[in-house]
Amino acid sequence: MQLIGMLDSPYVRRVAVSLKVLGLPFDLDQVSVFREFGKFAAINPVVKAPTLITDDGVVLMESSLILEHIAEIGPRRLMPADRAHHEKALRLVGLALAACEKSVSILYECKLRPEERQHQPWLDRVSGQLLTAYRVLEREVSSNWFTGEELMQPQITCAVAWRFTQHMVGDVVTAADFPRLSVLSKRAEALSFFRETDFD
Fold first, then answer.
1. How many Å separate Cα 189 from the centre of its chain?
2. Which of 44, 103, 142, 180 has a CB 3.0–4.6 Å from the CB of 51, allowing a cystine?
3. Are 26 and 2 in contact, with CB atoms under 8 Å apart?
4. How many other CB atoms are there within 10 angstroms of residue 183's CB atom?
5. Which pLDDT tens digit goes with each residue over 77-119?
6. What is the average pLDDT score of the chain?
7. Per residue in 152-162, pLDDT tens?
8. Nearest-CA neighbor of 175 among 194, 156, 189, 195?
9. Are strands 59-61 and 27-29 parallel, antiparallel or unpaired?
10. Is 90 strand, coil or helix?
11. Which segments of the chain does DSSP mark as H helices, in order?
């Protein structure tokens, strides 16, 4: 398999970490959708990261759909089979993905739009949504994560989301206000799956 995209994208990184957790071999081609648009378009005309080229040459996109494919070929699933635990896992993954989405929105508004055209009411709204997502995660994630357990998708996605937000818009989400997430992130980033997919 070939994974296309930059590891500073939380969507690319959550796929890369998941593949490593499952021990599935893949080649990573870090092509930027911004700096190498033409090269990316030659691989996937939609130019969407992450893109995964399967062993059969099928081009997939959208991290959640790629992870659905990985669930079919991996040695185990990264989501619980039990209904109650599955629902809880979906909730945590959804909150983390919402945090990623709002972080990206803030990043694009502040980095890609000229300052005089930035819309503060929009930034305030998105920042509020981002902070709300992390406040809920701070309450609901387990303080026992990353202490030797078999990693699942909620752990992976929450850790990847937090690292991305802190790296890209850490001025909006102050780490000191989220001590549990900060501790969990530190534990996660010490693991080989995360070290090998870091982007600094």
1. 13
2. 44
3. yes
4. 13
5. 999 999 999 999 999 999 999 999 999 999 999 888 888 888 9
6. 97
7. 999 999 999 99
8. 189
9. unpaired
10. helix
11. 10-22, 37-43, 63-73, 83-111, 120-140, 153-169, 179-189, 192-195
pLDDT band at 142 (very low <50, low <70, confident <90, very high): very high
Domains of the chain: 2-73 (3.40.30.10), 83-191 (1.20.1050.10)
79 Cβ neighbours under 8 A, 6+ residues apart: 71, 86, 89, 90, 152, 153
Provide the token pair at 32.
Answer: 């930027």
| Sign, CA torsion 11/14/17/19 | negative
> One-letter amino acid identity for 87?
E
**Encoding tokens for residue 68?**
């659905």
Which tokens in the block code for residue 79?
């989501």
2-4 and 59-61: which strand pairing? unpaired
- Residue 96 carries which side chain, given as an amino acid letter? A
Q: What pTM, to 2 d.p., does this model score?
A: 0.96
